[in-house]
Amino acid sequence: MKKAPTIITGTVGMDAHVIGTKIVSRTLKDAGFNVIALGMQVSPEEFISVAQETNADAILMTSLYGMAELDLKEFNEKRLEAGLGDMLLYIGGNLVIGRYDPKEVEPRFKQLGFDRVYPPETDIVTVIENDLRKDLKAKGKM
Amino acid sequence: MKKAPTIITGTVGMDAHVIGTKIVSRTLKDAGFNVIALGMQVSPEEFISVAQETNADAILMTSLYGMAELDLKEFNEKRLEAGLGDMLLYIGGNLVIGRYDPKEVEPRFKQLGFDRVYPPETDIVTVIENDLRKDLKAKGKM
Amino acid sequence: MKKLRVRNKKIDDDLLMKKRREELDKWPTGKEVDFDEAVAYQKSLPDSKIWWKVMTKLREEGRMSVFPRAGTPVLEKMIELCQGLRDSGVVLIPVTTDSYTRLCQYEKVEDILKECEKTGKPLLNGYPIINQGVKKTRKLVESIDAAFSPRGAGGEIAIASGMTTAEAGVGFLGFGSYVKNMTIQELVESSQNGMRVIGWYADRGVILCKDLHGWLPSAPFPLSINIVCMIIEAVTAAEQGQKALYPLVHCMGNMTQDLAWIKLAPRVIREYLDKFGYQDTMIIGTCPAQTPLFPVAMDMGGAFAYLCYASMVGALSKSNAVDLRSIDEGAGVPTKDTNTVSYRAAKWIFDVVREQQVEIDIKGIDTEEKVAETEVRAILDRILDLGDGDIVDGTVKAVESGVLDSPWSPNVNVKDQVLGVRDARGACRYLEFGNLPIPEEIKEFHRGKVAEREKLEGKKVDYHSTVKDLWSLSKGKIVGIPPYNQ
Amino acid sequence: MKKLRVRNKKIDDDLLMKKRREELDKWPTGKEVDFDEAVAYQKSLPDSKIWWKVMTKLREEGRMSVFPRAGTPVLEKMIELCQGLRDSGVVLIPVTTDSYTRLCQYEKVEDILKECEKTGKPLLNGYPIINQGVKKTRKLVESIDAAFSPRGAGGEIAIASGMTTAEAGVGFLGFGSYVKNMTIQELVESSQNGMRVIGWYADRGVILCKDLHGWLPSAPFPLSINIVCMIIEAVTAAEQGQKALYPLVHCMGNMTQDLAWIKLAPRVIREYLDKFGYQDTMIIGTCPAQTPLFPVAMDMGGAFAYLCYASMVGALSKSNAVDLRSIDEGAGVPTKDTNTVSYRAAKWIFDVVREQQVEIDIKGIDTEEKVAETEVRAILDRILDLGDGDIVDGTVKAVESGVLDSPWSPNVNVKDQVLGVRDARGACRYLEFGNLPIPEEIKEFHRGKVAEREKLEGKKVDYHSTVKDLWSLSKGKIVGIPPYNQ
Ligand code: B12
Ligand code: B12
Question: Cβ contact (<8 Å) for D485 and C256?
Answer without folding.
Answer: no
